[in-house]
Input
Amino acid sequence: MLDLTRPYDIAIFGGGLCGFAAARRLAEAGRRVILIERRPVLCWEATWAFQLALPASPSPCATALREELARVGGLRADRADAPILEIVLDSHIAASGVDVLFYSQPVAVRVDDGRVVAVTVAGKAGEFAVRAGAFVDATEEALLWRLTGVVFEAAPGDATHVLFLNNVPATLKTQLALGDLGGVRDVTLQPSVWDSEVAVEFAIPSPDIRVARRSLPGLLRALRTEVRELSGALVTHLGVEPFPQACLRPRDARGVAHPSLGSLFGAGAWTTSAAGTSPSSRAISQGNVPLVNRIAAGEAAAASILESLQRVDLPRAEGIVSHSVVAPPVYEYDVIVCGGGTAGAFAAIAAARQGTKTALIEPTSFLGGIGTGGGIHCYYHGVAGGIQDEADARLEELSPLFGPEGGAIGFHPEAKKVVLQQMADEAGVELIFNTTVTGVETEPLPTTLPATGRETPVRRIRGVVAAGPEGNALYRAKAIVDSTGDGDVAVMAGAPYTFGRATDHLPHAYSLAAGRLDQKGRLLITNFDAGYCDPSDVADLTRARRRGLEHYRRERYDSSNRLLYIAPLIGLRNSRQIIGDYCLTLADEIAGREFPDVIAYARSHFDNHGLDYENESDEAMFWVWVLGQWQRPIGCEIPYRSLLPRGVEGLVMACRAISMTHDAHNQLRMQRDMQRIGEAAGIAAALAVKRGVTPRSLDVKLVQAELYKSGALGTRQKHALPPPGAIEVHEQSWKPPQLPARPIQQWAEELGKENPYEAVWALVNAGADALPLLREALKAEKPQTRLWAAIALAWCRDRAAVPELAAAVRERRMETPPGRKAAPLWQSCIVLLGRVGDTSAVPVLEEVLRDKTATLDALIAAVRALGRIGDRSATSAIVAMLDRTDLPTTRTFQVSVAGVNPVVEDARWQLELAAAEALARLGSPRPDIAQRHLLDPRAYVRRYAALVAARSR
Output
């Protein structure tokens, strides 16, 4: 676990090739080192910009990488494979003992008595201080040195971009220079580690990824026309960033030592610009092989730093500030969209099409989020319509340039990146890539409402602070859209929120997808749950990314198990849910509820990847475990009020963090859902600006009219101007089927039939009217009728259900409802006994804790049930269970698309913390149990442990 409260010997900023090699060398010398990088990847020049030539060299680090790559099958003809290299780099840095922090970058430097004593680091969760005895700037922008006032000269020049084609005939000659082609210069074909794969390198006039992406259609047309062997090839992956051919030049500084600050050094490629004056410059001058040269430069810089640092003086903690001062530049817009992912791209396009000056701030170098950079290039449920229909039509038209029909399962992710950028460019959106929102600017807002003493202060958001390659800047706007995925902007502005599920605050499992080829040469998705992650903690985001890489590690790679790429984005399904003016619920979705302020439709199923429904809400457990309805289509209208965070004006939500319960998010999180929400939020923000009001004060009918015109509301056809009067926005064709209308008596008669699940749901929703019929059904001769009547009564918390439920537990009734993830009824009855809360159920629940065959889920369910019942006599049984040495403690995660074996995690923490929480409820707290988990490397475990510790005091 990273411990940023302790100072490091050396903190290196910039995890590129130079920084990686320097960190490894300094750690080998016995220094405690942290390596901090704004991207979620090491050595971006090779792993993201695909500079993959790795010839033999005197560099010890490069030699070690060559040997490991050759051993596992990732090196051929002096060229490396990018995804294998990414995995090998991570294992090497881990073995060296270097701590790694991704998603973070420096924004301010604290100097004391001529030395840098701390650097303020910014990430999506805000700012914090890193202390060290020495600091090394290995960023390609020389950001630390520039923050201290060192002046650099600009580095104009070309950049190289790379794309990979697969399914290429063996007859194609590689290392072939094609010259100028399709509007770009210096096109060459380079070999790959793999047969039938070729790399296409080409020059662009600047390292701006937008320039590279605009050039792709013309280049691909020309390649397929001019090179016959490429006519049927499939574009499988492209560089995430171009590689610049020139670097900054320090105007006065020479070598690796800072000209005036003794504890600050340089190890970037820019330290070589004063030719012949430093070891790193000599190391990098041997030919144009960026991978080898930059590694050698990092090693040489590290050697010079070690010569200068005979000893490391660690700074004191006193007086270290953890925030930066945001100075100019300040940028002004009408609308700012924070996050260009699934929803944010559409929000920005929609806002700009309304004629507002719109900027989009995105941490990565592409638009589209999980569907383009997260490896999930297909739609899973959701409702089409609106701008997304236009994008899909353009995607279909462009896709043949990227490969033959059917070459990519779903849609082609690289083609969608191009389409979204084209649409944003045409709308006039200013795209600000590689920049993360790290703070907000707000002001108090007066209110005329009478005070009740319970209100949270209302604030108006005026702007956001964002950290990019050039440092911090302030971006102001009249309306802001939060498309960060985790509600970062809303939380920074003071909006209330929930996090994960209510019991242990665990978010949905995350994934790290990858691309691969099937036997037919098609681009496939590998998608599996890699574990859990707290996205509000950049250290845990880093841990999750690196943990995901471990699942792809193999003893040897070949054409059958190779990866095309590892997705730049990890698949975060949820974390925070912002509390807004209306909170959508699972009940809304099951009922297909309509709302007068509807701005979108959502249809899917209860797509919760979890299996431990004893830790979910009662509603989720009942829907999946008891009724077996995990796959049943559900959905409802989405109200505009769910996009408005409580207590904040000037802000609209457009991401998975909108106001809904954790249960509701399992249905409302699909790509089409987010694209619809994005369009609505962008239109609302723009209309609010044009009318001089806040989004909350905007008449939602104006938004609905625009959505009606685009085909996002009403039928899926685009409409002319709405007719006079109200428009019909409650479209019915997309809705899932509802339960048929029947008298309660008829539903009660179905309890004893083979599939009583709809009947049970109808009866529990009938409320008090159904209770007499259910109590009467408890007397039925047929056991199934009695049990299902008891299950329905338990939902209503009727104690008459206890004897039947207890009998089902004691007898281990194994009947399991049909459908994925349903559980044996005896296990569900454990949870229901806890819901009823009757002490007569305690003995049978204690028996479960003593059962050597009981599963992990059954044990946790029994512990939680006993805690809910509150009978102190159960304390000894819980303690005895904890003392067992034969407890089942492993948890197996879901694999959505094959490609790896299921991930297995030690879940002892779940059982122990659930037991500690129950013991605290029973008046016998065990704070020692929670204390054991407060130092767990996983942030989500520490979060739950802290809550249990507080309850155990």
Q: What stands out?
A: The CA atoms of residues 164 and 929 lie 52 Å apart. The first helix runs from residue 17 to 28. Residues 273-287 have pLDDT under 50 and may be disordered. The longest strand covers residues 126-137.
